[in-house]
């Protein structure tokens, strides 16, 4: 007998969140996006997990929830965009020398 869990998460950018989760999904997991039809952008990320043991299901769900939180955080920051002007990160090199070399 297998153990199953379905995790439904409403979020602002479900496609980006689902794509972010996909590389970490195992063969026992399937992530899809469901839309309610009224809005083209909002939706629900739905992940179904199927494992043979209760402890395996619990471990997979724990890992998934951590990954989900990170994916939502990244999607939120990506949606908010970058400032119009980049932040100066300082010099590209610690040395003050020119990078030209004599090739004779």
Integer-rounded radius of gyration: 22 Å
- Spatial arrangement of strands, main beta sheet: 1-3-2
Low-pLDDT residue intervals, each spanning 5 or more residues: none
Number of helices: 2
The dominant shape is: flat
For the record, what CATH class applies?
Alpha Beta
CATH third-tier fold name: Alpha-Beta Plaits
Percent in helix? 25-40%
Q: What is the beta-strand fraction?
A: 15-25%
Number of strands: 3
Distance between the termini: 75 Å
Explain what this protein looks like in three dimensions.
It is a single chain. The protein has helices at 14-21, 54-80, and strands spanning 3-11, 29-34, 43-51. With 104 residues, the chain is of the alpha+beta class. It has a single domain (3-80), classed as 2-Layer Sandwich (Alpha-Beta Plaits), CATH 3.30.70. The chain has a three-stranded antiparallel beta sheet with strand order 1-3-2, covered by helices on one side. A hairpin with an 8-residue loop joins β2 and β3 (43-51). The radius of gyration is 22 Å and the shape is flat. The protein starts with a strand and ends in a 24-residue tail after the last helix. The mean pLDDT is 83.
